[in-house]
């Protein structure tokens, strides 16, 4: 697998995790915590936009996508310790898996390719 193929798969995984976060808006109908739902959906939208920018070659877009996914993954951890519907745990587990795969596949793109000028 070439580096560009890994990067493409990684960006697709990050973007898919962002789309899953946007599906958290369904939680509004089930009476979930409104603040967390909107925060998660906002982070999902930021991920999708940053992954789209990264797919066009933006290193900053890739950094933002990875940072947003790390923050959002940290926000998903508490749902395992409180009374949460099974469907939401399934979405969070899928989001975790996509985030881990996306970060692992795109990490080589975060390295500098040439030394910084002094």
From TrEMBL:
Keywords recorded for this protein, A-Z: Membrane, Transmembrane, Transmembrane helix
Transmembrane segments: 34-54, 61-81, 87-105
Protein name, entry field: Integral membrane protein
Organism field: Pseudofrankia inefficax (strain DSM 45817 / CECT 9037 / DDB 130130 / EuI1c)
């Amino acid at each position: 697998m070439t580096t560009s193929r890994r990067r493409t798969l990684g960006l697709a995984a990050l973007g898919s995790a962002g789309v899953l976060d946007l599906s958290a808006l369904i939680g509004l109908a089930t009476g979930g915590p409104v603040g967390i739902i909107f925060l998660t959906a906002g982070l999902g939208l930021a991920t999708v936009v940053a992954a789209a920018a990264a797919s066009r070659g933006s290193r900053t877009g890739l950094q933002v996508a990875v940072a947003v996914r790390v923050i959002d993954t940290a926000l998903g951890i508490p749902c395992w310790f409180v009374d949460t519907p099974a469907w939401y745990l399934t979405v969070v587990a899928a989001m975790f898996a996509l985030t881990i795969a996306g970060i692992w596949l795109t990490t080589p793109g975060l390295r500098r390719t040439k030394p910084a000028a002094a």
